[in-house]
Amino acid sequence: MLYWLSGLAEGGDLFNLFRYITFRAGAAFFTALLFGFFFGQPLINFLRRKQKKGQPIRDDGPQSHFSKAGTPTMGGLLILSALFVSTLLWARFDSPYIWIILFVTCGFGLIGFADDYAKVTKQNTKGVSSRIRMLAGLVIAAIAGAAAAWVHPDALTNQLALPVFKNVLINLGILFVPFAMIVIVGAANAVNLTDGLDGLAVMPVMIAAATFGIIAYFVGNANFSNYLGLHYVPGTGEILVFAAALIGGGLGFLWYNAPPAAVFMGDTGSLALGGALGAIAVSTKHEIVLAIVGGLFVVEALSVIIQVAYFKRTGKRVFLMAPIHHHFEKKGWAEPQIVIRFWIISLILALIGLATLKVR
Question: pTM for the full model?
Answer without folding.
Answer: 0.94
